[in-house]
Queue: 3 jobs
Job 1
Amino acid sequence: MSVGDWLITMLIMIIPIANLVMLFIWGFGNPDPRRNYARATLIWMAISIVLTILLYAIIIFFVFSATSGMN
């Protein structure tokens, strides 16, 4: 892939819904030079979502435990 192709790829990655759709197309569609990049990006997105959910769950737990202790 040329530098121009990578610039277009990066441009697509900053468009909110299009990036997710294109990552699935590149990662699981026809063979594409961006296949490994797309799969790695999807894995990092999944890890980030799981860690964010865990962080919010921990914060909510501590907030509720702190407020219930005030009664």
Job 2
Amino acid sequence: MGNKKKKSSKAGPGVIATNRRARHDYNILETYEAGVQLVGTEIKSLREGKASLVEAFATVDDGQVWLRQLHIPEYSMGSWTNHSPRRTRKLLLHRREIDSIEGKVRDGRRTLVPLRLYLKNGLVKVELGLAEGKQDYDKRQAIRRRTEEREITRELGRKVKGMTA
């Protein structure tokens, strides 16, 4: 019987990186799953669980979708073949998805934000969100709503414990 290692990631199995700030700063209207075109040392570095989506964003240029500012650190065992950590990477989507996305982001009010980077069947995928920016008052309302819900569940928990005791 072999010992199996458990992943300590809260985001789910196979998740390499998540952009937790994106849902705070943007209203996510739609999500898309896209493949990421990588070189050898990038996939090895990602399998070690190293990546950062903090400053990453996607653009549509000449009928192609590109992921920019995704930070994948150099592979620790790599040599002269190592990749550039912040290079622009091509995203793999169906033509009809690219055309749909291009039409939706053309007006400048919406943007493409990577939400999470994960492994699926041995391939690296990125979940893209078609997003509209939130205003400061929207962010404050969301924080207030979460706080109120937390207090309600806490009160209900106390009442249930009081009834059983």
Job 3
Amino acid sequence: MARHAASSPRRSLFRTAGLTVTAAGAVLGLGGAAQAATAPVPLPVGTLAGSDTTEAAQGVLDALPHAVAPVKDLQLDPLANTGVDPLDNGAGTQVADFQPVSTTMATDPITKGGSLGTLPVVGQATGLLSG
């Protein structure tokens, strides 16, 4: 008898057990979600009453530099300055006496380990963000 034919009843048993456990988990999960949806959420007294919107806005403005600074300084290309960086190649051409044009002008800020703040146009825009 072939090996795959001998293990068929065991496989069927595991499949049935797995489906039973999955169905039971789904029923329990739906019951918990329905119970949580109907339960009222108590709010502490005075939580929303008397809140000052200027203080809340000031808190957001104080936190903004700390939230934005890591994003502005994060290295965009994780393979920058390595020998396997696929962006570290370029193509260029020169027609007659015109200035040569190359793709490295666009990719150099990224392949040299640049962050958002060091990019030519985007870097100036990130200067508007505090941080």
